[in-house]
Design brief:
The structure holds two protein chains of two kinds.
Chain A (H helix, E strand, L loop, with lengths): L3 E14 L6 E14 L5 E6 L5 H8 L7 E6 L2 E2 L6 H10 E4 L3 H4 L7 H11 L5 H14 L4 H4 L9 H13 L5 E5 L7 H17 L3 E6 L2 H7 L2 E6 L2 E7 H6 L4 H8 L13 H18 L2
Parallel strand pairs in A: 3-8, 3-9, 6-7, 7-8
Antiparallel strand pairs in A: 1-2, 1-4, 4-5, 9-10
Helix pairs in contact in A: 4-5, 5-7, 11-12
Chain B lengths: L11 H9 L14 E16 L2 E16 L3 E5 L6 H8 L7 E5 L2 E5 L2 E3 L6 H7 L4 E4 L13 H13 L3 H14 L16 H13 L5 E5 L7 H18 L2 E5 L3 H7 L2 E6 L2 E7 H6 L4 H8 L38 H5 L5 E4 L2 E3 L15
Parallel strand pairs in B: 3-9, 3-10, 7-8, 8-9
Antiparallel strand pairs in B: 1-2, 1-4, 1-5, 5-6, 10-11, 11-13, 12-13
């Protein structure tokens, strides 16, 4: 058996909230297991409502938060055991994040090329300015931009779609083998969304990067991902081949989720007044049933 | 605040509205065809001055549209195309540097025409919430964070309802039931509620006075799909029940398909296509609309979708001719030189494009 690229083994994350007298534990992530094989790049979509633990899971994979239970192994070594700075840098070189809001991800007072140059110096081992610029330009060309368009500009001078592409280029500078993208298209509008989504497909096919794609948009997940994991209240309720799961969801929550997707094909059909309530009450019923 | 009391019919408008009531048609033309809002050649510019050089950002540039009674009008387009500026101008929620450069904007409330830009501030305050309410962008973050929701309802609606406090509170509670919220939420602060609940409170706040016209700017962005569908359903139900007209702004075509009656597609400060929602989505005529609709992924369909290349134009220096021509595959010499007018291609379906809708058609609007 080969070593997995990423092996998330029954991880859990418990936050404790409240004061001295009413302390409660919130299980944000509860016994989640995932596996991405090395040498077989794929896009794994993690779908779920807000508060289902998607972002916590992403932060644990990126080693920004320590899980309270279970283990996350990247190429066989436990990421929480990373102590030395050089080990952490090596890990960051292989695993890179992309965040939800490109306007918040970059400091508005700093030039945008700074992020690319810093990553090139830290992770790509480029030393002199010519090499650094060449590395940044190479990464930008992979996302359909060039350094000439970006150099010396501030985030407010670029559109949301361009900024998100630059965020992806920044992640690509270190030639990672895993990208964790936390809702990368939810702040980008519909006409630009597909160019970002197609870019992820190209990264998987051409650069052989595996992607953990976190989203609540079922339509794009169906379109790009190979496998999906549906999460509710910290637990995986359904997982498997993306097409099989989304064409024919089995778990009641997955069915609720699929029925709530508003399709442009519904144009002209009257919105059933009961439809809204059913979606919400079905969800509420599911939540109630899961309460201890 | 409560000392001010409700306006006691000092204005003919409020008095007329109260006596007429909602639902029962007055002597005015039949409510199905009454135009509640008529906008003609509206221009709104962000006026900036750098070292004495004036620079106008033409966010809304010559828009004409109308909204009928009991109709939901949708506005779609990419970010920065002027959707929010347009609705801010419609509700007179503008502040410098945004200025209205040219306008003809008429509301028809309770059988009377009303130009909200000609009204003094006091009159405007009486119109707002009672006849015209606005759900601003990021509606989950617009509630006053240091006031309980009960106080927010009093701040906004008490003077317009004109009932003693206990009855007013009863009305608020029964109205909250429409958006399926418990009366207990009135005693909480906004941060104690989830995003979906806060958006429902904002919808309740905007509809409590049964206004003739509601403007909703991205009421469901940042909500997850299940909650989004529920919130939209409630917004739709409330609108049907109080029979008001509505403008709904969002870039999500799926939302428009499910909620709106008519849809206007905006590009770079102009309306490029307008018609019945189903017609615009099924048979788009403008290349931008076609692209927008074709790029949407659907569950159960794996055909290749592509995004739109290029960047939206800079509105301070828009391209000459049709503003879409630098990104359009069908662009011709005419497109580069002259701006296309909005022409009728079918009853109620207007398109501004030299190629797909050449203005040889008999009726030329604008």
């Amino acid at each position: 058996m080969t070593t997995a690229l990423l092996d998330v083994d029954r991880v859990g994350m418990t936050y404790s909230v409240g004061g001295f007298l009413n302390r409660r534990a919130i299980r944000a992530v509860d016994g989640v297991s995932l596996r991405l094989e090395s040498g077989k790049p794929e896009i794994l979509a993690v779908i779920g409502e807000s508060g289902s633990g998607k972002t916590t899971l992403a932060r644990m994979i990126l080693n920004l938060t320590k899980p309270t239970a279970g283990a996350i192994r990247f190429l066989g070594s436990d990421v929480t055991r990373i102590r030395a700075n050089c080990e952490r840098m090596a890990f960051m070189r292989r695993v890179q994040p992309i965040f939800q809001n490109p306007f918040e991800a970059f400091n508005p007072l700093k030039r945008i090329d700074r992020y690319l140059f810093l990553s090139a110096r830290r992770f790509a081992g480029a030393r002199d300015p010519v090499d650094i610029e060449a590395e940044a330009d190479k990464a930008l060309r992979q996302v359909g931009l060039s350094l000439a368009e970006v150099k010396g500009r501030y985030p407010h001078e670029l559109s949301g779609g361009q900024l998100q592409r630059i965020a992806i280029a920044r992640a690509l500078v270190s030639s990672p083998s895993l990208i964790v993208a936390d809702e990368p298209v939810s702040m980008v509008d519909a006409s630009l969304r597909m160019s970002i989504v197609n870019l992820f497909k190209a990264l998987r096919n051409e650069l052989e990067v595996s992607i953990v794609y976190i989203t609540h948009d079922l339509a794009t997940a169906y379109y790009i991902s190979d496998r999906v994991v549906i999460m509710q209240r910290g637990k995986v309720v359904e997982s498997g081949n993306a097409r099989a799961v989304l064409d024919n969801p089995q778990h009641p929550y997955s069915i609720v989720l699929k029925n709530a997707v508003l399709s442009p094909d519904d144009a002209g059909k009257p919105m059933s007044p009961a439809g809204a309530t059913t979606a919400l009450s079905a969800n509420a019923a599911l939540n109630a049933e899961r309460k201890p | 605040m409560s000392a001010a009391g409700p306006p006691q019919g000092t204005r003919p408008l409020a008095g007329a509205a109260r006596s007429a009531g909602r639902g029962e048609p007055t002597s005015a033309p039949s409510p199905a065809t009454e135009r509640v809002l008529t906008v003609r050649d509206l221009c709104a510019y962000y006026r900036a001055r750098h070292f004495g050089v004036r620079r106008d950002v033409r966010a809304v540039d010559g828009i004409s549209l109308h909204v009928d009674r009991n109709e939901i009008y949708g506005l779609a387009g990419e970010s920065g195309c002027g959707k929010t500026t347009l609705v801010k101008t419609i509700v007179r929620g503008i502040r410098p540097p945004l200025a209205v450069a040219g306008r003809s904007l008429t509301f028809r409330f309770a059988g009377q025409d009303c130009d909200i830009y000609a009204l003094p501030q006091r009159e405007l305050e009486n119109i707002r919430w009672r006849h015209l309410s606005y759900i601003p962008q990021g509606s989950m973050n617009v509630l006053n964070p240091v006031r309980r929701l009960r106080q927010s309802f009093v701040d906004f609606a008490y003077r317009h309802i004109g009932k003693p406090m206990p009855e007013f509170m009863q009305q608020v509670e029964s109205h909250l039931e429409r958006v399926r919220l418990e009366p207990a939420v009135l005693d909480s602060y906004p941060h104690e509620l989830s995003g979906g609940m806060r958006q429902r409170v904002t919808i309740a706040l905007a509809s409590i006075c049964r206004p003739d016209f509601i403007v909703a700017d991205e009421p469901t962005t940042a909500l997850d799909v299940v909650v989004q569908k529920a919130v939209l359903g409630m917004l739709h139900d409330v609108q049907q029940e109080i029979r008001s007209s509505m403008i709904l702004v969002t870039h999500d075509i799926g939302v428009h398909a499910n909620v709106t009656d008519r849809l206007g597609i905006m590009y770079a400060g102009r309306v490029v296509e307008e018609g019945r929602t189903a017609e615009v989505i099924r048979t788009p005529r403008h290349p931008y609309t076609s692209h927008l609709v074709a790029s949407l992924p659907r569950i159960g369909d794996m055909t290749q979708r592509c995004g739109l290349d290029g960047a939206p134009p800079n509105l301070a220096d828009p391209p000459p001719g049709c503003r879409f021509h630098p990104r359009c595959r069908l662009a011709t010499a005419t497109c580069r030189a002259e701006s296309p007018p909005l022409v009728d291609v079918a009853p109620g379906h207007r398109v501004a494009c030299w190629v797909t809708a050449p203005p040889t058609s008999p009726v030329i609007v604008q």
